[in-house]
Amino acid sequence: MSASAKNSPQGLSTRLAHAGRSPEAHDGFVNPPVVHASTVLFPDTETMITGKQKYHYARRGNPTTDSLEDALCELEGATGVKLASSGLNAISVALLSCLSAGDHLLVTDSAYAPTRHLCETTLRRLGIEVDYFDPTIGAGISALFRPNTRAIMTEAPGSLTFEMQDIPAIVAAARTIDAFVLMDNTWATPCFFRPLDHGVDLSIQAGTKYIVGHSDAMLGTVAAGPRAWDRLNETHGALGMHVAPDDVFLGLRGLRTMKVRLDRHMESALTVASWLQQRPEVARVRYPALAGEPGHELWRRDFTGASGLFAFDFVEGTSDQAARAFLDALTLFGLGYSWGGFESLAIPVRLKGARSATPLPEGGPSIRLHIGLEDVADIQTDLEAGFAAMGG
Predict the structure, then answer these.
(1) Region (Disordered) spans which residues (predicted)?
(2) What pLDDT score does 249 carry?
(3) Taking the domain 258-388, which CATH number applies?
């Protein structure tokens, strides 16, 4: 991508509306075509043998996938972007592009649970050593480095407990040993935090969430800086990874309104989170955008916004049965995994087996909420019904 694209004076919403589109190349139609294809034909044998043609086989991309990759490249400020079939698939290809047998990987203890499962199964089977670190460690991560430490997997904030990480400090430490830094940036998206601008090598999103935004497609993305791009591109191709064009189209459609939706998610989440802080049933709200939260200063320093995902802890002494009664009484909130869609969702936070470097939080049960696009008054009414069902 050109330097002018990275340093565009246009606003974020303007770039989201126009990036990756070339109406003049498609007879004036606003959206790029959805190309369903496998075989690509060559005009002659010479072109086929030399490969002097933009597309060779649809597994390696087509005009639809190029449109989304180009748009995300501009949004992320990346050297290149590759698409994956899910967020976990994106994490997998990103890690495999950095690591070889005998390498050492450091992973934040607050990582997305399927990331930990990947590390404990496939990566260990491939001979990769894995250790977990306190997400608040910052520059202290240097003490965990080994001669074979090759990569550091970060996520800010954490998926369930929402600790922030000092990404610039971790990047600075990693540079001393030439290790790659990867970041799961699904929570903030590049709308609110651009990892590559802070020295991260691979910025990962579960595009299923805020890019798609409508709970109707699975998608993952990996944006690479200059140090990581060649290996990501090579690994992605070697693994034969491909995303169906209809899912890519839904990602492109969602991308155009992502900033508008995120602004609404944040506004509503801040209102609901502040309201929950006043509830007698609630001991703590885990949302970095709230003043007074342990990670708030890092969030305010590095991020420009927050999404609609956070958690809250019931007061100590609340039973698991009461927490389940709260969840089962909700009617507006769906009980479902994932997040980032237009609808509000709730799940119980279950950390058993998901921490090894840091102790499990003390206190009452915890609930994770995704605040959707419904009216805030209706969201609060639904939560009030949940509290009422707890039976004191």
Answers:
(1) 1-30
(2) 96
(3) 3.90.1150.10
170: left (phi over 0), alpha (psi -120 to 50) or beta: alpha
104-108 and 149-155: which strand pairing?
A: parallel
Strand 80-84 and strand 282-286: pairing? unpaired
Does domain 3-256 sit in CATH 3.40.640.10?
Answer: yes
Q: Are 64 and 249 in contact (CB under 8 A)?
A: yes
Residue 364 tokens, joined: 């009452």
Residues lower than pLDDT 50 in the chain: 1-6
pTM check: above 0.90: yes
Query: For position 392, what pLDDT does the model report?
Result: 57
Question: What distance in Å separates the CA atoms of residue 207 and residue 276, rounded to the nearest whole number?
Answer: 29
Q: 3-class SS at 337?
A: coil
Distances (CA, A) of 306 to 65, 151, 256, 267: 28, 27, 18, 9
Q: Are 182 and 154 in contact (CB under 8 A)?
A: yes
Q: How many helices (H) and strands (E) does the chain have?
A: 15, 12
Name the residue ranges covered by the structural domains of the chain.
Answer: 3-256, 258-388
Q: Could you report the per-residue pLDDT of 144-155, keeping only the tens digit for each?
A: 999 999 999 999
Catalytic residues: 59, 112, 184, 209
